[in-house]
Structures are given as structure tokens and as C-alpha cells.
Amino acid sequence: MLGKIAEWLKILVVLAFLWPVLVQCRGNIRHYKFNVMMTNVTRLCSTKPTVTVNGKFPGPTIYAREDDTLLIKVVNQVHYNLSIHWHGVKQLRTCWADGPAYIAQCPIQPGKSYVYNFTVTEQRGTLFWHAHILWLRATVHGAIVILPKHTLSYPFSKPKKEVVIILGEWWKSDVEAVVDEATQSGLPPNISDAHTINGLTGPVSTCSSQEGFNFLVEPGKKYLLRIINAALNEELFFKIAGHNLTVVEVDAAYVKPFETETILTAPGQTTNVILSTNHKNGKYSMVTSPYMDSPILVNNKAATATLQYIGTNNSSTTFTVPPPRNATSTAFNFMDSLKSLNSKKYPAKVPIKINHSLFFIISLGLNPCASCYRGFRIVAAINNVTFVMPSVSLLSTHFFNKSGVFTDDFPGNPQNAFDYTGVPPQNLRTMEGTKLYRLEYNSNVQLILQDTGLLSPENHPMHLHGFNFFVVGRGKGNFNPKEDSKKFNLVDPVERNTINAPSGGWVAIRFRANNPGVWFFHCHLEVHTTWGLKMAFVVNNGNGPNESLLPPPKDLPKC
């Protein structure tokens, strides 16, 4: 009897020793509550009612650790329909929590709520959340910080402090009114009035009293800056006077570290950098400004903030000059420097054998519109298909095998080839439809994204929900499959969830379709998404429950 008791005591001691490890492997459950409400916000010496989360702009930061489960209750207290997207979270088998309205769910109606329930798996780094209906993400957005497992450390020296920096845009007018006016006219909406750093513009000529974000640092330390581009329609440069930045991660994927004076980030992208405070004292300007290398109207006003060394009081600020808005060489040098870390702990698992080889051309077009200002409406398309949003959830339609809502005949290649970056065809009309492309579970996809000169060449930051992908190639002009494929980087290409299809050029990505559901793929310039530059992939279930989409939650909103 005593022997059995001794054996049980040994087992209990072992379990007590292993319990912290077992808990860490399983992850914790973290609860958040988002009250979406109207809040009066003052910027540029003007106050307006603004849609916010918990009364904050930007909204609260979500903190989690790899393998944690998040339960985020979103309560809609405004008069708009609402949904929240957890941008970059892979949502393995939990497409119901992905968030895009009428794709993964019906929106949360005014006065209703929905609990987003998902587990962060095989991810660590900086992502962000934002509204995914109308243009509400202009102010409904915030950071997601995913810390590594307790058993893992950063692949770089631990910083003294971590700071979230969110870049955005601000309109003095009601953003939804701006969009409605543009929709009625068929023309582009008015550009924003200012850029922001953590919701603040810094002093501007029309409002010198407008405050800016102030960041206090100690000399001789290292700080991790988690930089997020939450702007609606503009790629942005970011730099700090007198300091270089060491890039260590993009889109929650580690990269080979490299030093730069300026970073480039497109809407939907995140960049983690190490800042070394190599001065003894002083104030230094932080600036974000637009990048646009096409004849497209953008808000050319820079937003400013201040990096201030502790103990510095009345010294003057050291300023920096932002790059020219058409600084293509600066942009390309930055993008060319991005390589996956590709270490033993974090290998670059690039798909080699391809099952689906897709070629998507991105274009603008003109469709007839009798009520519009000039008798036509500006639209956007992929392979000449302007996506029509349904009035019900595509995911529910797919899961319950309903018909009549979408077709799965989205063209994998252009139906009519032409000189994509040369002289455009005379007919600029597009097809309209709710067309999806179907993928088998675990199939490998190669996708070429080709910009065109239809109406105007332009950069298009394309975001894929539910997956990361590898950027294996990029070039100018028309993609040449025989020659350009030979130059693909299949060893350490950067891993992302959002990538620029360059103005007048192409980009090649690869991913494995190992996540069942209906996954949105769209331009993250909100104006282009509104015009129809979007589609979705349907990924079938695999074998067994672990490769199948989970059933819908009981509180899933109804249309």
C-alpha cells in the first residue's frame, strides 16, 4: 500500500513540474470587449462624431501569445451595420471569425453583438484589426500584438520597450458621406485631409495647435517599433530624423535583419523595426508621407511626431525631409531587401510543385451608369470581372451547400490577352458577377498579379485572407513566363499577407491552400475595393475533422 502511495506521489510531482509547460503549449483564453460607439473626436481644429471602439481612436491593442484563444465580444452601438476583420490572423478552420461582411459573415446589426472566437496558431508578431464593411475602418482599427511562446525568444536582442505606431488618414468630413457622394457621381471620392501617427497629425498650417504623438526614449537602448499602415488609400513612407531602423519582421513573419533610413508600408501591411537610441539627448522628428508613382491624386501632407530623449526640455527639434512622393527607387530598394529569415526554427516552406497556376490582371474600367455624372461609373476588376457583393454570407452559402448566390467559375487567366502595360484596348467595360475560384484542400497555388495601363497604371496592395504567401518574384512590364520564372526566389522569399502589385509591373506569389473556407482576396486600397477589385477563393474540406471547416457558432449574425 505504501509503495502505491509513493508511486502516486511521484506522478503528482512530475505533473506539478510539467503543468506550466502543458499550459504554455495549450495557450490561455483571453477575453476582450469592443463597444463600437459614436465619439466626438477633434482633429485639425475641428470636431466630428466618429465611429470608435471603446471611445478610442485608434482602438485598443489586442495582446495575445502564440496558441492563445481569443474571445472578443463586439457590441454594435452605432447605426451602421458592422463587422471586424482580424487582419493577417490565419483563422485555421475558423473562417466564421474572419470578419469581412457578406463574405465570412452577415454584418452585426445595430444593437446586436457577436463573439469572435479563434486561436492564434503558428503566428507571432504584429498584425491589426479593422472594420470590414463600408469605409468604417478609417477610424475603427487597432493593433494585434502576438508574443512568442514562453519557450521561444525573439530571433534578435530583446528590446527595452515595445511601441505600437499606427499610420492612418483623417477626413474632416463624415467619411461615409464622402463615399456616398462619390458612389452617386461614379467618380473617385475626395482624398483625406491629413495623415496621422497614432491618431494624431502633428501641427499643420491650418491648425498649428494640433498636437502630435510624443515618444520618450532613453539613450543607449533598443526599442521595438511595431508599425502598422491602417490608411485607407495610400502607401506610406516612414522615417525618423537622425536614426536608422533595423527591419526584423513584416506581416508577423521574421525577415533577415537589414538597416534602412526609410521604410515603405502599404495599407494592410505591418513592419517591425529595431530603433537604437544612439544620441545622448535631443528631439527628433518622426514623419510619414505618401508614396505614389502614378499620376493619381493623393494627400501629399506629411504627418509628424516627436522622438524625445528623456531629460531633453527646450532644445529645438531635428527635422528630416520625407522622400519625394514618387521615390520609386527608395520603395523598390526597401522591397528588394526583404528576405525570409529561413532558419531552422522559422523555415521558409515555399511550395514547389504547383497545382494551380493562376494569372490575374488588375485593371480599372468604365461601366454605363445613367444616373452618374458623366453617364459612366469607374469600376475595377480582376481578369475583367468586377465583383458584385452578395446580400448574404458566401461562407454560409458554401457550408450549407445553397445555390443561386455565387458561381465557382472565376477565370484563372485573362479571357482576352493584350499588351497589359502598353496601349490599352478601346473597350473599358467589365463583366459583373459574384464569381469564386475553387481550390482543393492542400493544393499549391502560384498566382501572378499583373498591373495594367487601363485608365492608369497604379500600385495595388493585394490582401489574401486566411493565408500567408511567399513573394517569389517581381518585375516591371508584362510578365514573361519563360524568362521571369527562371529568376524566382524559391529559397528565402519574404512571407506576407499583403503585397503590392507594382504600377506597370507584376508580382508572383505562392501559397498552400491548407485552410478550408471562403477567403476574400482584394485590393487594400478601399477605393478600389469599393469599385469591385476583389474576389474570393473557396477551399474545400480535406480528409477528416482536422482538415474541415468547423460548424458556425450559435451567435453568428443573420442577414
TrEMBL record:
<dbReference type="InterPro" id="IPR045087">
    <property type="entry name" value="Cu-oxidase_fam"/>
</dbReference>
<keyword id="KW-0479">Metal-binding</keyword>
<dbReference type="InterPro" id="IPR017761">
    <property type="entry name" value="Laccase"/>
</dbReference>
<dbReference type="InterPro" id="IPR034288">
    <property type="entry name" value="CuRO_1_LCC"/>
</dbReference>
<dbReference type="Pfam" id="PF07732">
    <property type="entry name" value="Cu-oxidase_3"/>
</dbReference>
<keyword id="KW-0186">Copper</keyword>
<keyword id="KW-0732">Signal</keyword>
<protein>
    <recommendedName>
        <fullName>Laccase</fullName>
        <ecNumber>1.10.3.2</ecNumber>
    </recommendedName>
</protein>
<dbReference type="GO" id="GO:0005507">
    <property type="term" value="F:copper ion binding"/>
</dbReference>
<dbReference type="GO" id="GO:0046274">
    <property type="term" value="P:lignin catabolic process"/>
</dbReference>
<feature type="domain" description="Plastocyanin-like">
    <location>
        <begin position="36"/>
        <end position="149"/>
    </location>
</feature>
<dbReference type="InterPro" id="IPR034285">
    <property type="entry name" value="CuRO_2_LCC"/>
</dbReference>
<dbReference type="GO" id="GO:0052716">
    <property type="term" value="F:hydroquinone:oxygen oxidoreductase activity"/>
</dbReference>
<dbReference type="InterPro" id="IPR034289">
    <property type="entry name" value="CuRO_3_LCC"/>
</dbReference>
<dbReference type="InterPro" id="IPR001117">
    <property type="entry name" value="Cu-oxidase_2nd"/>
</dbReference>
<dbReference type="GO" id="GO:0048046">
    <property type="term" value="C:apoplast"/>
</dbReference>
<comment type="function">
    <text>Lignin degradation and detoxification of lignin-derived products.</text>
</comment>
<dbReference type="Pfam" id="PF07731">
    <property type="entry name" value="Cu-oxidase_2"/>
</dbReference>
<dbReference type="Pfam" id="PF00394">
    <property type="entry name" value="Cu-oxidase"/>
</dbReference>
<keyword id="KW-0052">Apoplast</keyword>
<keyword id="KW-0439">Lignin degradation</keyword>
<keyword id="KW-0677">Repeat</keyword>
<dbReference type="InterPro" id="IPR011707">
    <property type="entry name" value="Cu-oxidase-like_N"/>
</dbReference>
<dbReference type="InterPro" id="IPR002355">
    <property type="entry name" value="Cu_oxidase_Cu_BS"/>
</dbReference>
<comment type="similarity">
    <text>Belongs to the multicopper oxidase family.</text>
</comment>
<dbReference type="InterPro" id="IPR008972">
    <property type="entry name" value="Cupredoxin"/>
</dbReference>
<dbReference type="InterPro" id="IPR011706">
    <property type="entry name" value="Cu-oxidase_C"/>
</dbReference>
<feature type="domain" description="Plastocyanin-like">
    <location>
        <begin position="411"/>
        <end position="542"/>
    </location>
</feature>
<keyword id="KW-0325">Glycoprotein</keyword>
<feature type="signal peptide">
    <location>
        <begin position="1"/>
        <end position="25"/>
    </location>
</feature>
<keyword id="KW-0560">Oxidoreductase</keyword>
<keyword id="KW-0964">Secreted</keyword>
<dbReference type="InterPro" id="IPR033138">
    <property type="entry name" value="Cu_oxidase_CS"/>
</dbReference>
<feature type="domain" description="Plastocyanin-like">
    <location>
        <begin position="162"/>
        <end position="311"/>
    </location>
</feature>
